[in-house]
Every structure is written in C-alpha cells, then in structure tokens.
Amino acid sequence: MWSDHQLLKQMTALRAACSPTFSLRRRMLHFIQNFVYYMKFEVIEPHWRELESKLNASKEYCLNRSKHDDSTEANFPRTVDDLLNEHNQFLTRLFTQCLLSNYDLIERASKIMTTCLLFCTQIKFFMESTKVHETLENTRIERSMMRFGKKKKNSDRETEFRAKREENIQRCSDRILKEYRTENYQHMIKKFDQVFTSHLAEFMKNLNSDYGQRSNSHLTNLFMQLDYNGFVSSSLYPE
Q1: pLDDT digits (tens, 9 = 90+) for 48-58
Q2: Angle between helices 103-130 and 132-148 (to 10 degrees)
Q3: Which alpha helices (H) appear in the chain, and where do they start and end?
Q4: How many Å separate Cα 83 from the centre of its chain?
Q5: 3-state DSSP call for residue 209?
Q6: 27, 196 in Cβ contact below 8 A?
C-alpha cells in the first residue's frame, strides 16, 4: 500500500483528493511501526540480551568450575532447575509486556490491526481496478526500450516519449480522480477512519488508565511511544 501511495503522490492533480486516504494511511502506519518497535526493541531484545548474558555466564561457570567459589552468590543459573527458572521468567516477562496477559488490550490491538489489513486490501483492489500500474509499467518498458535499444536517441523521440508519458499520467489521474469522487469510495474511507479512530481511542484509553500508570510501567512506555509529540492524541481529540 505504501508503494501505491508513493505512486499516487507523483500525480500532483490528486494530492488534494488523496489527502483523507493519505492521512488515514499515515496514522495506521504510525501505530503499526511503533507497536512493532515496542515489542521488538523494548521488550524482546533487552530481555533476550539479559537471558543470553546469564546463559553465557553459566557456560563460563561450567567450563571453569574449579576456579569459582560455590559459596558466593551468583546472578546466573548454576543448575538445570536454575536455567529452567530463568527461561520461565523470560517467557513470563515477554508474555506480560507484549500484552498477551491483558485480554482487553490484546483484543483492541487485534481489532486495530484487522482494520489496517482490511484497509490495505481495499486499497489494493482499488488500485487494481484503476489499472494505473499496468499503464505506468507499459510506459517504463517503452522507456527502457528507447534507452537501451539499437536505435540512436534523438531529441524528437525523447520529446515525443515525454509528451506521451505526461498524457498517460494525466489519463490515469483523471480516472483515479473520478473514482475518488464517487460516493462509495468516500463512504469507505470515512467508515475506515471512524472504525480505526474508535478502536485506537479505546486502546489508548486503556493504556493510559490508572492500572497502566501504577502497576505496569511498560504500558505507560507503550503509550508514550505511540503518542510521541502528541501524534495520536491530536488526531483523537482535535482542538
């Protein structure tokens, strides 16, 4: 979907008509990127590094056991039971901080991601119906044949090609603009925006609840990650 929108941005005549679609896509992309970043780099990665460090320390202890004093307390697993306990703690932390233990949050997150997937599918169908990719691909092939063909280049052929390309782009723009202005398309974008905003508002409200602030700092961290510089709250509660 990102590549489709980058393609449409090249058609300057569509920028105003595409604004609601681009805005919704940007909000969805912001949520997905930051949600994935939080789980990968603020939950999974640091806890895995911590477990890996303890495993390496345990391995070093086993290889050089005679040099270690067993009477001193160690912060790494020394026995199989210790190892299993560390692994269970690792899984528990991931389970909790990836929201898998919070039914309300994971349900709302699932609804948001389902909405994003449906939106991507509808935009894909829309782009296929306009045949803009087919038109521009033919133009690209023609350009390649002219550039690497046996015939020598000349300014007349180059000018003719550019004029034809502009004509094709204008034709695609007119076709897409006509579709954008249909009642069905506008209703679809408006409906997706309402559903996404509703699910996101519930998700953020749950994250910012007293439970999230007092008992689970990771929920507050996720809230701040998603609402950096007020990006989400400004769209949910515009002034």
Answers
A1: 999 999 888 88
A2: 60
A3: 2-9, 15-37, 45-63, 80-97, 103-130, 132-148, 155-180, 183-207, 210-214, 217-226, 231-236
A4: 35
A5: coil
A6: yes
Locate tokens 């449409």: which residue? Answer: 8
Going from the C-alpha of 67 to that of each of 21, 31, 62, 144, 228, the distances in angstroms are 66, 51, 10, 70, 50
- φ, ψ of residue 216 in degrees (nearest 5): -135, 100
To the question of pTM greater than 0.70 for the whole model, the response is yes
> DSSP labels for 143-201?
HHHHHHSSSPP-HHHHHHHHHHHHHHHHHHHHHHHHHHTSHHHHHHHHHHHHHHHHHHH
Q: Which structure tokens are listed for 228?
A: 């950096």
Q: Which amino acid is at 155?
A: S
Which pair of structure tokens corresponds to residue 82? 């210790």
